[in-house]
Amino acid sequence: MPTVSMTVNGKQVSGEVEARTLLAQFIRENLELTGTHIGCDTSQCGACVVHVNGSSVKSCTMLAVEADGADVTTIEGLAMDGDTLHPMQEAFRDNHGLQCGFCTPGMVMSAIDLVDRNPNPTDSEIRDWLEGNICRCTGYHNIVKSIAAGAAAMRGQKAAAE
Amino acid sequence: MSATGIGASVKRKEDFRFLTGRGNYTDDINQPGQTYAYILRSSHAHAKIKKIDTADAKSAPGVLAIFTGEDMQVGSLPCGWAVNNKDGSPMNEPPHPPLAQGKVRYVGDQIAVVIAETYAQAKDAAERIVLDLEELPAVTTVDAAIAPGAPLVHDDLAPGNMCYDWEIGDEAETDAAFKGAAHVVSIDVTNNRLVPNAMEPRAAIGDYNKGTGEYTLYTTSQNPHVIRLLMGAFVLQLPEHKLRVVAPDVGGGFGSKIYHYAEEAIVTWASEKVRRPIKWTAERSESFVSDAHGRDHVTHADLALDASGKFLGLKVYTKANLGAYLSTFSTCVPTYLYATLLAGVYTTPKVYANVKSIFTNTVPVDAYRGAGRPEATYLLERLVSKAARELGMDQVEIRRKNFIPADAFPYQTPVALQYDSGDYEATLKKAMELADWNGFAARKAEAAGRGKLRGIGISTYLEACGIAPSAVVGSLGARAGLFESANVRVHPTGSVSIYTGSHSHGQGHETTFAQLVSETLGIPIENVNIDHGDTNRIAFGMGTYGSRSLAVGGEAIMKALGKVVDKASKIAAHLMEASAEDVEFKDGKFTVAGTDKEVDFGTVALTAYVPHNYPHETLEPGLEENAFYDPMNFTYPGGCHICEVEIDPDTGVTKVVNMTAVDDVGRVINPMIVEGQIHGGLAQGIGQALLENCEYDENGQLLSGSFMDYCMPRADNFPGFQATTESTLCAHNSLGVKGCGEVGAIGSPPAVINAVLDALADKGVTDISMPATSHKVWQAIQNAQMPAAAE
Ligand code: FES
Ligand code: FES
Fold first, then answer.
1. What residue stretches are annotated with the Aldehyde oxidase/xanthine dehydrogenase a/b hammerhead domain (chain B) (predicted)?
2. A84 contacts in B (CB within 8 Å)?
């Protein structure tokens, strides 16, 4: 079995996987980071979104071996010190952007990538961006609100840092 | 109102764990020594099992065992509600084995289970099982299933594929009402079949402990105690005290996770055989063919009206598709949760309904968000709008003319239910204001200038939830009580644990229920923990469905809290040397009227557990109370939904541009959570109206079996919603709450379709079926404009 090594949430990890093992499975099963979810088998739902080298990726569409040497961030790696929520996580809580929580890790990871690319997205840009993220609970209304608020908070944080 | 009490939009306590990836869903759980199950399912809709050869598969790497129906001779998956035929005879109730016996009856039916060291090994080995199946002709639609000579799903156990032929209301009196009618308006509607698709696929872990003889089942369930009862008592014959069912964090349910499913029984049973824990997790394509589907009604209805547009009588004939087997609550959905709602918000004096529920070679059909009530509402609100058009009346006026007035409650309908409260005019008025109903003509003209067809549609509806008074449902055939239980445990330092039989799978109980405690006991919400979902920790529970958590589960908590306050008052009276009758409790403090004596809740709690100075003669130490609450009636949320669409006539592309919902959900504990529930319901309702459809071909192959073929609503399918409440209080529970989980999905589909038909009226289109996809809309425009070509 091939061995893969990568950086996940700032830590160096490695493991033996079958060639067919998906990155999503490696994260959930080998690393026991179960915040990344699997909601479909056709790459539609986005529950599995993580960041690979800074960009959002559906971890069910990537083999673990393809991520060899990559820098991966999962939902568990977002909150600073594991306690202080990332502004996007905070925005989801403040705006009731989640109900059952199953789509949430993917939504948050996807939203952060959107804001990295487009710091001030309009509501319709947010809705378009979420094409690859399905939520069955919220009707998206509060997710859109959360992402707009999270974007504003991320802009504020960036301005403060500069 | 305190910052964390009733009426406050408290941020959810559960969110931190979900937002940081610390949720604990069934598939996140692993047991030492765990093995994995793969279920081999039928790819035929209907076939005789001649032989299943597992010998080669058993020798595949990693395989521990393979079981078929022949090995697993256990009880049938039970149906929880007996519905009688018109003539009083019992329904046909063919057995539902966890692993198929003799025949497979739908694509997805369980044939065998492979248990291996890894999931991949189990799946690989299943490919080596050799099946000898004799394919039989299949039926997938209700009309095909009741046609003479149709293939029989259950052979002589359900002649004519009929489960039951049921009726409600007085047919002769309703006929008489039609005799004097000035107008009769008729409609034929299909309520499209849907796949619930909670984002978390179902999963189950069975774990048998030889040392204690105990079985544990972790499962994605909305009601773990119900699963324990059904699986323990009926399927596997395991006593409750040796069976623990845990439903941890559950990623959405919408009804689909109420039922006791075969996989739960299979992993529990097989874990005793292989003496190792067994995990099964559905892949999404498996969910499509194994989660109970929803809706699937075909209905004809006639409405009699007098010359002024007043409703005189309603006759409804419905054929409901039950799929291949009776799922847990399947039989009550098209009867007691549907036909009893056919009076709607109107004073229609006579209503008669006949429902035939029919077996087909499709996935079992059961409750999906709203369950029966969306089907009733869709029929009624399409019919009322059609009547307005045919009589040349205004959409709003015809409704107002027939509303049950706000001063008429309690109101007895001709179809069994007695509504306790409501004000349909109030919700209508507020919705029309919010939606700027009167400004519609200008918006339509503006859209026309852009080449778009703009339409507005309305739905005024009610539903029955807060399920349910046990005695009433028992008399109607329910095989269970529908009460709820709660336990309030006050700890020595004054913090509180609540153990509730309700189950949260997105509804936010950990917050809403904690608000009840914070308000009642005057303690900070941080000092309250809500526990649910484990039959070993929670005394009993009937779970969460039918918008019952607050109206039934919340009331049980209130009742138990009342007992705690009673006992605490006695302890406080002792401490203050007063009589208990003189003690008042407010904002967490006990006082004696007319004195400055005061003792706080924390001191009383501590005294209960350190009872040095204590009325031992009359009171036990400790501060913990249980309560069971059985409601007096259903609750009746209702309201008004208004939808505006814009259609591009060249492409048929239909966009919802405005969606307004004003719902009467009774008292609102947490407005933020209530609005979120309504948003989610609206998305599912609009999804049903415009996007979603579960489709089989005539051989019983599921054509919409993945997210590529089944159109799940995405963010860009919706506008922002205007959702708010305008409440009257429930008259028969202490909180005055009604329920908010399903209203969005119940009220919205007819509002959307009425809007589509309004937009297309000028083009001559008078009917369209759900889902009104772009293609269907475009086709309707073409057909209406080229009548000759369409013929
Ligand atoms: S699990 Fe990756 S997109 Fe659904
Ligand atoms: S919160 Fe449940 S799927 Fe999005």
1. 20-137
2. none
**pLDDT at B23 (0 to 100):** 97
Closest by alpha carbon to B217, among B236, B239, B245, B190? B245
The residue nearest atom 1 of ligand 1, judged by CA position, is A38
Strand partners, B478: B81
Q: Which residues, numbered 428 to 447 in chain B, qualify as contacts with chain A under a Cβ-Cβ cut-off of 8 Å?
A: none
Q: Ligand 1 pocket, A40 CB below 6 A?
A: yes
Give the bridge partners for B164, in sequence order.
B357
Strand order, beta sheet including B110-116:
B63-68, B110-116, B35-41, B278-281, B203-209, B214-219, B243-246
Q: What is the pLDDT of residue B786?
A: 80
Supply the pTM of this predicted model: 0.97
Mean pLDDT by runs of 10 across the 791 residues of chain B is: 89 97 97 98 98 98 98 97 97 98 98 97 98 98 97 97 98 96 98 98 98 97 97 97 98 97 98 98 98 98 98 98 97 97 98 98 97 98 98 98 97 96 98 98 98 98 93 91 96 97 95 97 96 96 93 96 97 96 95 94 98 96 97 96 98 98 97 98 98 97 97 97 96 96 97 98 96 98 75 45
Torsion of CA B112, B131, B51, B41, to 10 degrees: 30
Contact between B716 and A127 using a beta-carbon 8 Å cutoff: yes
In degrees and rounded to multiples of 5, residue B565 shows phi and psi of: -65, -40
Interface residue B22 vs chain A (CB under 8 A): yes
Q: How many CB pairs under 8 A join A and B?
A: 178
Spatial CA neighbour of B400 closest among B383, B382, B376, B424: B424
| Stretch(es) of chain B classified as CATH 3.30.365.10 | 297-467+633-789, 483-629
Q: Does the domain formed by B31-136+199-252+257-290 have CATH 3.90.1170.50?
A: yes
Q: Which CATH class is domain B483-629?
A: alpha beta
Angle between helices B743-760 and B774-785 in degrees, nearest 10: 30
Which positions ≥6 away from B787 have C-beta within 8 Å?
Answer: none
Among B675, B707, B723, select the one facing A44 at the smallest CB separation.
B707
Cβ atoms within 10 A of the Cβ of B478, count? Answer: 22
Closest protein CA for atom 4 of ligand 2: A135
Give dist(CA B605, CA B601) in Å, integer.
Answer: 6
Q: Which residues pair with B318 in a beta bridge?
A: B299, B355
Domain with CATH 3.90.1170.50 in chain B: 31-136+199-252+257-290
Please identify among residues 260-279 of chain B the ones whose CB lies closer than 8 Å to any CB of chain A. Answer: none
Residue B472 in 3-state DSSP?
Answer: helix
B664 close to B637: Cβ distance less than 8 angstroms: yes
**Burial of B172: CB neighbours in 10 Å, binned 0-12, 13-18, 19+:** exposed
CATH topology of domain B297-467+633-789: Aldehyde Oxidoreductase; domain 4 (3.30.365)
Please give the Cα distance from B196 to B258 (Å, whole number).
12
Domains of chain A in sequence order: 3-77 (3.10.20.30), 87-154 (1.10.150.120)
Residue B723 backbone phi and psi in degrees, to 5: -120, 125
Interchain contact A100–B (C-beta under 8 A): yes
Phi-psi region at B666: left, alpha or beta (left = phi > 0; alpha = psi -120 to 50): left
ipTM above 0.85, yes or no: yes
Interface residue A138 vs chain B (CB under 8 A): yes
B710 inside 8 A of chain A by CB: no
